[in-house]
Amino acid sequence: MPQTLTAPFTTLSHPSIVAPKGFHADGQHVGLKHKAKDLGWLISDVPAAVAGVFTTNQIQAAPVQLTKKTIQNGQLQAIIVNSGNANAVTGQVQPALTEAFWQHGIAAIGLNAGSNQLLTGHVLDQALYGYVGVIHQVNTQLIQQLWQQNLIPIIAPLAMTNDGQWLNVNADHAATAIAKQLHADALYLLTDVAGVKVSGCLLQALTPKTAQHLTADHLVTGGMIPKINSALNAVKRGVHHVHITNTVTQPGTVVTL
């Protein structure tokens, strides 16, 4: 039986959030987003029965692995949710991308961190994020060998620790790590908008100084901030141009030094 929690949690007084009888809910800002609460929890007064429905994919993102392990005994007292879970390009997405390349006459192959130690990483902060990690090594030799065979690798943003633990990695961070270690000429960070916009106007170019000004004045917020940070990290490490755009046929916002 799990221990009963005794911490003095309070119920979140928000009109759109209702905790059922016997439960308490709350949240706080921990820095995953620029502003607003980005970490929440739901707590039962006593240990409660718990169940879950999970993906059947062989490659499962870190939050899935951690949750399955946590609820093995069928009881739980608290659920913690953060807004910083990175997307894992697994399941239907990676095969769909690979198929789209083939349909356009481009030979492609789907890869993940388990492919000859393609992406090696370490845990970012297990207490806060679980098995979310950062990449510290890329098997660039494997990628270059595939290029020599005229194959384009479609790489899932997952890493693996030295002892074999799968890690979920932010897709932009994974792309940036790969581009840096390949000394890429250009990196495209795709999003759902045409680029970085300020007051509705698209920025043609962005430098570190301008980016600092925009973030300090809160002119860019939300998910665009980590995307800009990834772009700046890439150009500072030798990638010549980074494009933030919604299509590779348009330059979008070009990030340079």
Task: Describe this entry's structure for a reader.
With 257 residues, the protein is α/β, with parallel strands linked by helices. Helices cover 26% and strands 27% of the residues. The protein contains 7 helices and 15 strands. The chain has helices at 62-70, 93-103, 126-129, 140-148, 171-182, 208-216, 224-236, and strands at 23-28, 39-49, 75-82, 108-111, 119-123, 133-138, 152-155, 158-160, 166-168, 186-190, 197-198, 201-202, 205-206, 241-245, 253-255. A 4-stranded mixed beta sheet has the order 10-14-15-13. Strands 1-2-3 form a 3-stranded antiparallel beta sheet, with no helix packed on it. Helix 5 (171-182) packs parallel to helix 7. The longest helix has 13 residues, at 224-236.
Low-confidence stretches: 1-11
Mean of pLDDT: 81
Strand content: 25-35%
Report the order of strands and helices.
EEHEHEEHEHEEEHEEEEHHEE
In order across it, which strands form the biggest sheet?
10-14-15-13
Q: What is this structure's SSE topology?
A:
Elements: E1 23-28, E2 39-49, H1 62-70, E3 75-82, H2 93-103, E4 108-111, E5 119-123, H3 126-129, E6 133-138, H4 140-148, E7 152-155, E8 158-160, E9 166-168, H5 171-182, E10 186-190, E11 197-198, E12 201-202, E13 205-206, H6 208-216, H7 224-236, E14 241-245, E15 253-255
Parallel strand pairs: 4-7, 10-14, 13-15
Antiparallel strand pairs: 1-2, 2-3, 5-6, 8-9, 11-12, 14-15
